DNA sequence: CCTTGACCTTCCAGCGACTGGAGGCCCTAT
DNA sequence: ATAGGGCCTCCAGTCGCTGGAAGGTCAAGG
């Protein structure tokens, strides 16, 4: 399979696949013409990477997960540890966004939103709120 | 006030303040020795920027908000519009993270996390789940 | 056989919002 | 005179791509 085929199969842009090779996540073979040639294993690995990325794992976390995925003697504890750390990061991010959301929603609801210049949102941002 | 003083007063790193000048968010005066000199207005503007950034507004949104903050003839509707768009973005981001969180939490809870290699997390990422 | 167009290649630059560090000037206190 | 801290500019790096330029390759149609 060429990069276009694998791109369609995985849903990942060709640019992204080349980038993953560049940073050493995958090592596709090369044909005589210099084209990348992707095996079934490459397909599995890229699918895996795509899903891991869509769950918000960083590239380095993906690298570690992929190594564990490839290592048939891994301990599931190692995988779970990475996942738990990431889950905690997601929770922290959600909490941060919810705090922002609460403050912002309060300011928005206090603002008349008409033609007058008086604006509780700006006052709040300026520290008068 | 020099940059160190304003940094303490606003809580923003000096590097960030220089960066804000570089991209035209602020225009502090300069002393004969080349040092930046910050007025009370600069202090207010930087405080405003710090709060807006901490609510997740992008730099360009901050630029627009600061312009409205400075313009005493603004309509509060313009401010509210920016804030509402941002609020919607935050909500979208929260929803995205919660979806990730749900999937990930499910995988984590299904994983024994022991010394055996069998791992529902890896299976899920591979698409077997 | 030639051309067209889709596909592939590499390399370089840019996004957002800083952050770190090098190298050097300035100011105050001892 | 010197030591220290603070200030200056400029360059490079972060993360994960993404866009574009310049050019090689391949299959189909005339």
Automatic annotation (TrEMBL), chains A, B:
<dbReference type="GO" id="GO:0003700">
    <property type="term" value="F:DNA-binding transcription factor activity"/>
</dbReference>
<dbReference type="GO" id="GO:0005507">
    <property type="term" value="F:copper ion binding"/>
</dbReference>
<dbReference type="InterPro" id="IPR000551">
    <property type="entry name" value="MerR-type_HTH_dom"/>
</dbReference>
<keyword id="KW-0963">Cytoplasm</keyword>
<dbReference type="InterPro" id="IPR009061">
    <property type="entry name" value="DNA-bd_dom_put_sf"/>
</dbReference>
<keyword id="KW-0804">Transcription</keyword>
<feature type="domain" description="HTH merR-type">
    <location>
        <begin position="1"/>
        <end position="68"/>
    </location>
</feature>
<dbReference type="Pfam" id="PF00376">
    <property type="entry name" value="MerR"/>
</dbReference>
<dbReference type="Pfam" id="PF09278">
    <property type="entry name" value="MerR-DNA-bind"/>
</dbReference>
<dbReference type="GO" id="GO:0003677">
    <property type="term" value="F:DNA binding"/>
</dbReference>
<dbReference type="InterPro" id="IPR015358">
    <property type="entry name" value="Tscrpt_reg_MerR_DNA-bd"/>
</dbReference>
<dbReference type="InterPro" id="IPR047057">
    <property type="entry name" value="MerR_fam"/>
</dbReference>
<dbReference type="InterPro" id="IPR011789">
    <property type="entry name" value="CueR"/>
</dbReference>
<keyword id="KW-0238">DNA-binding</keyword>
<dbReference type="GO" id="GO:0045893">
    <property type="term" value="P:positive regulation of DNA-templated transcription"/>
</dbReference>
<keyword id="KW-0805">Transcription regulation</keyword>
<dbReference type="GO" id="GO:0005737">
    <property type="term" value="C:cytoplasm"/>
</dbReference>
<protein>
    <submittedName>
        <fullName>Cu(I)-responsive transcriptional regulator</fullName>
    </submittedName>
</protein>
